[in-house]
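Tutorial handout. Part one gives the primary structure; part two gives the three-dimensional structure as tokens.
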Amino acid sequence: MRRALRWAGCLSWVLASCGGPAPAVDAARADASATDADTGVSPAEDAAPLDAPDDRVVPDGSLRCSRSALRFRGSGVGDIDRVKIPVDDPTNNAPGPPADVGATDFTIEFWLKGAAADNRAGAIRCGDNVDWIRGNIVIDRDRFSQDRKFGVSLGAGRVVWGVSGDRTGDRTVCASAVVLDDRWHHVAVQRRRRDGYLWIFVDGRLEAEGDGPDGDVSYPDDGVPGNHCGGPCLSSDPFLVLGAEKHDAGREYPSFNGSIDELRISRTLRYATTFTVAAEPWAVDSDTAALYRFEEASGDAIVDSAGNASPGVRRYGGNPPGPDWSTDTPFRCP
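Part two.
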């Protein structure tokens, strides 16, 4: 509980480390009706209290349906058009929040929707490399020029999953199914700690697997971001970033343009073989490290439904601005 309370109150550190609210980056965005021209952060709309009765909630705490998702625009600049979830506080050596997985087995799964025309990264060269960073990046837990990192991207419309160990090598594995068809798809990636083995599942089917680098790939509690970002990478390295390449390193490392919903991070291997994808949003269980439903539908705070121990922040901006709150979800309400 003490760690959960500590990280639930960390949004002020997140905003400070990101340089405050996301900046306005162009005149077109300043004219957008959904944006505050002074801060560049979309204004929070009136929303129901978090403890308000919700007829979508079933007894186990899960939801029958979903009313909002996030629509990213692939901007790839200015530390905007992304969600940032802190996984370490570089001012101390204390353990990170529960979303900082990699010290044990883990699964990251989510729903994704995008179009090939909006995500033009080509086929990725899979194998003993870090070429996952050359796809349209969906999840980025990179560390600039350092080990113990991982990420998920899309190359030629296919899911790519890459991991770097602690001086134990790199591995990128690639799925075969095309997911950029403007439909919702369930994606799950997994890693086994004892031998680094990697899996990719798409819509419940095992798409790719392979031996990966061994060891702990969580963010080091004593990690020191490198001096590669016009100074130390303090506003990028110690974060799990959604929908963007976290360092804004250039066009050769493109960001994802599409929608994400229902992101669950688990401290276990959820799947061993082909499975039936859930027809409803997940409930929180004992293996859930963090769960992002994206049901806020307004504002910039991203709630972790697993006790809000790993909260995040939406960094809104770009032309067109993103990520937008969208009512297009994989579990639409009646």
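Part three, for discussion. The CA atoms of residues 47 and 298 lie 7 Å apart. Residues 2-8 form the longest helix (7 residues).
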